[in-house]
Amino acid sequence: MSKNLNALQSPTVKRRVQNRDKLEADIVAEAVRVFAECGYEGASVATVAENAGLSKQNLMYYFPTKLALYQRVLDDVLDEWLERMDSLSAPGQEPREMLRAYIQAKLRFSREQPWASRVYAMEVIGGAKLYGEQIAQRVVPLLRKDIEVFERWVSEGKIAPVNATHLLFAIWAMTQSYADFSAQMTLVLGRKQLTRRDFDDAEKLIVDMVLAAVAQPAPAAP
């Protein structure tokens, strides 16, 4: 009897879990934009709820506090950002291909997830007061892992000696600026938004600059 009851309940339970996951994802999607536009202090749970088509009380059933919602937003942002960062350690590729893929992934994140990038940037610019511990625990180990990749390339003679930490900082700054400072860019360019062509041009320039920075010097003429 018990097994039959469980068998009947299982599809219902799965649907409930799926519905909850979808609703939470919808809430987070609205929260990303609100936090990006207003910052943590200026953001309102009521605004997020209204944008998601929920009452404030209903939203707070899933996220009891604004801080819980904010941290979930940043968790999701960091999950995706770190997944793209991890491409440097993929085996079986040469440095040029890996660096090109890394830059492409970072620019694609800026193009596809500009609000997410801005939420993360605002948290860091504000001193990472609400999310600094998570950044330290998750970003720093992956950064060290990527630095080890650069050091291995240098030791194998595949790239010129380079300060990998600052090269990665430079790549982050160049790629993320296309999300975090797009308003300034569009003002300078005289249009409402960045185009795919802008991102293609940025990719070519950034890739060329980075590959030039790690290129081995040509051997001296005999």
Termini, distance in Å?
Answer: 88 Å
CATH class of the largest domain: Mainly Alpha
CA-atom Rg in angstroms? 22 Å
In the CATH hierarchy, the third-tier topology of the largest domain is known as Tetracycline Repressor, domain 2
Number of helices: 10
Class from helix and strand fractions: mainly alpha
Low-pLDDT residue intervals, each spanning 5 or more residues: none
Q: How would you sum up the major sheet?
A: none
Quaternary organisation of the protein chains: single chain
CATH architecture descriptor text of the largest domain: Orthogonal Bundle
Average of per-residue pLDDT values: 89
- How many distinct beta strands? 0
Order of helices and strands: HHHHHHHHHH
Fourth-level CATH superfamily of the largest domain = Tetracycline Repressor, domain 2
How much of the residues is beta strand, in percent?
A: under 5%
Count of discrete domains: 2
Shape: elongated
Approximate helicity band? over 70%
Give descriptors for this structure:
222 residues; mainly alpha; Arc Repressor Mutant, subunit A; Tetracycline Repressor, domain 2; 2 domains; 10 helices; 78% helix; Tscrpt_reg_YcdC_C; DNA-binding transcription factor activity
Describe the model.
The chain is an all-alpha fold and 222 residues long. The chain folds into two domains: 1-64, Orthogonal Bundle (Arc Repressor Mutant, subunit A); 73-216, Tetracycline Repressor, domain 2 (Orthogonal Bundle). The protein has ten helices and no strands. Helix 4 (66-85) packs parallel to helix 7 (132-155) and helix 6 packs across helix 8 (164-180). The longest helix has 41 residues, at 2-42. It is elongated, with a radius of gyration of 22 Å. One of its GO terms (biological process) is negative regulation of DNA-templated transcription. Residues 44-63 bind DNA. Residues 21-81 form the HTH tetR-type domain. This is TetR/AcrR family transcriptional regulator. GO terms for molecular function: DNA-binding transcription factor activity; transcription cis-regulatory region binding.
